[in-house]
Design brief:
Blueprint (H helix, E strand, L loop, with lengths): L1 H56 L12 E5 L4 E6 L9 E5 L7 E5 L10 E6 L4 E6 L8 E7 L9 E10 L2 E3 L3 E5 L4 E7 L8 E5 L2 E8 L4 E4 L2 E5 L4 E6 L8 E7 L2 E10 L3 H9 L10 H20 L2 H5 L2 H35 L2 E6 L11 E6 L5 E4 L1
Length: 390
């Protein structure tokens, strides 16, 4: 009995110990969860001012102002940026500032200040079109970065509306049109732009893939090589004019200065038959009359001239009935003259034959009294003998 009681007491003690351990674990879990919640709450409370400040700093990047996103400009040249805004901002102050963060950007120009902070910057507002434009000139590589179109809204707790634009200043080359086209026999112009650091360098015009074909011109000069005219103004523009275009001129070319180059495609189109006909048949009008009456008179004169040209054309002249009748009459006259000439020739031939004959007179046989009355003439020639009685 005593052994049984001791075994029961031992098992009950173990159960009590297990229960106590379980309760201790639950308390530790509860305490840990409370600590986590407390730390999260403290973290949220600490981040609230930071989130508020971040939202304030970024407020300018989401507003009612719209502009371009990215611009690439050659060194030494200028750029104009349009900034569009909502109608409610027509009377508000607009500004242009530089900086990666809107809140701390440096304002370079304002619409309510006549003299901008940077003399190279100008700003103009057009409330009717709901747009203000900013122009920056003489750009250098150091001017690359972020800029902001801003509108002052007013109020302490409301940020201005603004939108950012990234400007990159390059010292390479660019081309106004990467593809130009001209008609066969005509001409094309290619304008290549370069940065200010290349203003003193020579410029080249080369056929793509063939460096031996390059035509070179010195800075601020002009060179003519056959149908190609090269001109460099020394201020950032290199112009190439190709004249008297042929089909063989079509292809890819390079504008080159220093180590920089840019590709240009030249296309040559065939001159159409319709254009050739119009240019041949219609007179060239160097100017159009302003008065409608003069315009109608000019068009009528052109129509009359065109009809006259058609009447005087070879196909119209040779196809008229008068010319056909005259041609037939001329043929008849030629035939008659030819026949008359032939007949005249036959007479002359007969006379020549008669001129070579011998003439013999023989009195007519009979009485002596009858000899005074008649005779016989004999013609001796190569033809048979002929007799003429008299």
């Amino acid at each position: 009995m005593s052994c049984t009681k001791e075994a029961g007491a031992s098992s009950s003690g173990q159960e009590t110990h297990r229960a106590q351990e379980e309760m201790s674990k639950r308390r530790r879990r509860t305490s840990g969860s409370l600590q986590k919640r407390s730390s999260v709450a403290h973290a949220h409370a600490g981040m609230a001012p930071l989130l508020f400040l971040l939202s304030f700093l970024l407020a300018g990047s989401h507003g009612d102002v719209v502009t371009v996103k990215n611009l690439v400009v050659l060194e030494g040249r200028s750029v104009t940026v349009p900034c569009h805004y909502e109608p409610q901002y027509a009377r508000h102050v607009k500004y242009w500032c530089q900086g990666s963060m809107y809140t701390f950007c440096s304002r370079l120009a304002r619409t309510d200040v006549a003299q901008p902070a940077d003399a190279r910057v100008s700003i103009t507002d057009d409330p009717a079109q709901q747009v203000f434009t900013v122009t920056m000139s003489g750009l250098q590589e150091a001017d690359s970065g972020w800029y902001w179109c801003g509108v002052e809204v007013g109020g302490m707790w409301k940020a201005d509306d603004a939108m950012s634009v990234q400007i990159t200043v390059s010292h390479g080359m660019s081309v106004v049109n990467s593809m130009v086209a001209g008609e066969e026999g005509g001409s094309v112009n290619v304008q290549c732009l370069y940065g200010s650091r290349h203003s003193g360098s020579s410029k080249k015009w080369c056929r793509s893939g063939d460096w031996g074909s390059c035509l070179e011109v010195s800075s601020n000069s002009t060179r003519e090589a056959g149908p190609v005219l090269l001109s460099d103004d020394g201020a950032g523009a290199f112009t190439v004019t190709v004249r008297a275009l042929e089909q063989g001129d079509a292809g890819w070319y390079w504008c080159v200065t220093g180590q920089e180059q840019v590709s240009v495609q030249v296309a040559v189109t065939s001159r159409s038959t319709t254009q050739r006909t119009l240019r041949t048949s219609l007179p060239l009008m160097t100017s159009l009359p302003v008065d409608p009456k003069e315009a109608s008179t000019s068009l009528a004169t052109t129509s009359v001239r065109t009809a006259s040209q058609e009447r005087n054309s070879p196909s119209h002249v040779f196809g008229s009935p008068l010319v056909i009748g005259g041609s037939l009459l001329l043929l008849v006259i030629v035939a008659v003259v030819t026949w008359k000439t032939w007949c005249h020739y036959q007479r002359i031939r007969k006379r020549r034959d008669m001129g070579g004959a011998e003439l013999t007179f023989s009195p007519h046989p009979g009485s002596e009294n009858d000899q005074n009355k008649g005779g016989v003439i004999f013609f001796q020639s190569s033809s048979p003998q002929q007799v003429l009685l008299l």
